[in-house]
Amino acid sequence: MAAQINPSILSADFARLADEARAVRGADWLHVDVMDNHFVPNLTLGVPVVESLARATDIPLDCHLMIEAPDRWAPQYVEAGAGSVTFHVEAAAAPVRLAREIRAKGARASMALKPATPIEPYEDLLPELDMLLIMTVEPGFGGQAFLDIMLPKIRRTRELISKHGLELWLQVDGGVSDSTIEQCADAGADVFVAGSAVYGASDPAEAVRALRTRAEAATAKASWACDH
């Protein structure tokens, strides 16, 4: 299974977003963190910036909504040009209905779990999703240290995906770097959000390639991938 690398523009220069999008050529998706200063204690960007980014890059947009009332707002991000929209299950009033609406509008539907949120209560929702995001830091700020206590949760999630025979992407976000990406891949992740590890590098495009190489090497040896 091919690893996907999604650079996070949260670590980019917000005054040069179009240039920063071009700097990560070869990336699979551009990860866009939307924060509302309510669900998380930070405020970033919204629909108008996503619309502008969608016009400025050929890399598809992976919008991660760290916001209250995603049932109301998520569909607008599909309309703005996002190819994948992630809502937090902790904030969604009707996650199945929301996932179906996102899909009906033409985007991939993804659900995110904060570190303290277990995966097991949501097992029955997995067939409604195209991707599941396991947060490996507390959402709200970039540059945080990777929480290795999330690795067992990633493994359990991969086991549930395999149990149901789903083609569900498993994304990790938070502290992903050249020193942690192999652990995530070995545990079962196949989509990796990387912020400072990419945009803090002298050559962001090369950082994307290097992260992909590490993730693919770890995946090739992982028991979950061999069994797939």
UniProtKB/TrEMBL annotation:
<dbReference type="InterPro" id="IPR013785">
    <property type="entry name" value="Aldolase_TIM"/>
</dbReference>
<comment type="similarity">
    <text>Belongs to the ribulose-phosphate 3-epimerase family.</text>
</comment>
<feature type="binding site">
    <location>
        <position position="8"/>
    </location>
    <ligand>
        <name>substrate</name>
    </ligand>
</feature>
<feature type="binding site">
    <location>
        <begin position="140"/>
        <end position="143"/>
    </location>
    <ligand>
        <name>substrate</name>
    </ligand>
</feature>
<keyword id="KW-0479">Metal-binding</keyword>
<feature type="binding site">
    <location>
        <position position="33"/>
    </location>
    <ligand>
        <name>a divalent metal cation</name>
    </ligand>
</feature>
<comment type="function">
    <text>Catalyzes the reversible epimerization of D-ribulose 5-phosphate to D-xylulose 5-phosphate.</text>
</comment>
<feature type="binding site">
    <location>
        <position position="173"/>
    </location>
    <ligand>
        <name>a divalent metal cation</name>
    </ligand>
</feature>
<comment type="pathway">
    <text>Carbohydrate degradation.</text>
</comment>
<feature type="binding site">
    <location>
        <position position="31"/>
    </location>
    <ligand>
        <name>a divalent metal cation</name>
    </ligand>
</feature>
<feature type="binding site">
    <location>
        <position position="64"/>
    </location>
    <ligand>
        <name>a divalent metal cation</name>
    </ligand>
</feature>
<protein>
    <recommendedName>
        <fullName>Ribulose-phosphate 3-epimerase</fullName>
        <ecNumber>5.1.3.1</ecNumber>
    </recommendedName>
</protein>
<keyword id="KW-0119">Carbohydrate metabolism</keyword>
<keyword id="KW-0413">Isomerase</keyword>
<feature type="binding site">
    <location>
        <begin position="173"/>
        <end position="175"/>
    </location>
    <ligand>
        <name>substrate</name>
    </ligand>
</feature>
<dbReference type="InterPro" id="IPR026019">
    <property type="entry name" value="Ribul_P_3_epim"/>
</dbReference>
<dbReference type="GO" id="GO:0004750">
    <property type="term" value="F:D-ribulose-phosphate 3-epimerase activity"/>
</dbReference>
<feature type="active site" description="Proton acceptor">
    <location>
        <position position="33"/>
    </location>
</feature>
<dbReference type="Pfam" id="PF00834">
    <property type="entry name" value="Ribul_P_3_epim"/>
</dbReference>
<dbReference type="InterPro" id="IPR000056">
    <property type="entry name" value="Ribul_P_3_epim-like"/>
</dbReference>
<dbReference type="InterPro" id="IPR011060">
    <property type="entry name" value="RibuloseP-bd_barrel"/>
</dbReference>
<feature type="binding site">
    <location>
        <begin position="195"/>
        <end position="196"/>
    </location>
    <ligand>
        <name>substrate</name>
    </ligand>
</feature>
<feature type="active site" description="Proton donor">
    <location>
        <position position="173"/>
    </location>
</feature>
<feature type="binding site">
    <location>
        <position position="64"/>
    </location>
    <ligand>
        <name>substrate</name>
    </ligand>
</feature>
